[in-house]
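Folding Query — how this chain folds
Tokens — whole-number codes for backbone shape
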Amino acid sequence: MNVKKAAGTVTIWTSLSKIFGYIRESVIAYFFGASTVVDAFLVASLIPNTLVAILANGFPAAMTSLYKELYAKDKKMALRFVSLLSGLFIITAVLLIIILWFGAPLVVRALAPGFSHETSTVTIRLAVMLLPMLFLSLMGKFACSLLYANDIFALPTFATVLLPNIVLIGAIVLTAKFWGIKSMVLGLILGWMLALLIQFFRLYRIGLRVRVACFWRDLYIKRFGLLIVPVLLSSGITYVYLFIDRILASGLAEGSISSLNFAGKVSMLPENIFAFSLGAVILPALSALAARHSYEEMAVMTRKGFNTMLFLAAPCAAGLFVLAEPITRLLFFRGAFDETDLVMTASALMAFSLGVMANCINPIMIRTFFALQETRVPVITSIISLAVKLIVSLILIPSLGHTALALGDSAAVSVCTVVLLILLHRRLPSGLVNPKLFFSWGKIFLAVGMMTGMVYLVNIKLSLLLSGSGGTLIRLVIAIFTGAAGYAGLSLILKIKEFDLFLDFIHSHLKKKSID
């Protein structure tokens, strides 16, 4: 598998998805603002989203390594394994839906104890309506992971990260005036239904058949269970962050949950494009190397992934911090989204931006541990990060309000990344960190620091000259262009190796386009 080519394919589709994702958030802000009804929907959707995210983050790591191992021996055995696995996930999804159908009131009250009775009632109703999405999105994520394991990247990326956004936007625009917040429920369910159908049609052609009988007797299903338990614990602890945010923010100023959600979505742009794209294709490659005990090659691939993420994420983090206010104004400041919402969302975005680098680097190291089938390490680091999250949030909430929750997230993921780096360096025979790596990091941070100064000065100067939505757009375009050009020039001057690799990647894709 060509990792660079596959990562490029996923990056393109994911980038398109993020464009539609911000259109989606802008549409939500336009129709509903940072309001109580949006707070209710976000808490309601957190229930299925969190369960799916925990499972979806867990099973690719356990499934891919076993699937690759089986596929190398016998393709039919590998297909039988994933067919049984699909049956297991269907049963799991149905059981979760039944439990949540009856337990929704308890879960909602636990997640948002600060909600009024009226808001809690709306949240419970929305949570029940969203239950079908749990099954559809879980199976959609399962299909996506299996297609990735078969080195098929374009179709599942389109189906899971782009298509649901397009359908959701359409549903809100067409039905929000009649159905209100229920239009978002309709959009989510229809989007994931289409995503599931498209992917399972492709898997059927590969040879996948759903089997629900006697999966508990299969040796590889048992091995899968042993591998996935610590992974699920790690994912579960990670998503406790969201529960903490919702619980604590429900007792703060109105719109706190919505502001954190809008800011969080913006801050996740680098992670969703770069880290998701590379992470999606690097896990199968690392698993194949681990199966051959090629640990030196694993170290080289992880090191390159680490440096590439740092080179791409560091300037993004700096840009989000410096340009938080104009970015928020351009994306959301219209309709029901007012000046108060703008200030709350921009402050949260600045706090989230401090954790952008760690959020991009973290998945690379975690996937290396997964490929080594050492799934306990992410559990340990997740527990440490959770403690950091709680301590920082609780200390700062009295003075910073909802912004403290975003700072807690950034502090937690940063500590987690440092611990993972140390442990992975000790685990790999040749190590991960060396003097050349530190020298490379120094050049990247020097370039980012100088770029940040340029963007800050340009933004301040233009803010005095330009106003209105058109002025904000022009200010952002000029500031971003200045930052990108400055970073590129400094990378050439400082001879940052990752910039040369980036140029080679762009050139190869442009050359391919011209040939086509």
About this structure: The chain has 19 helices and no strands.
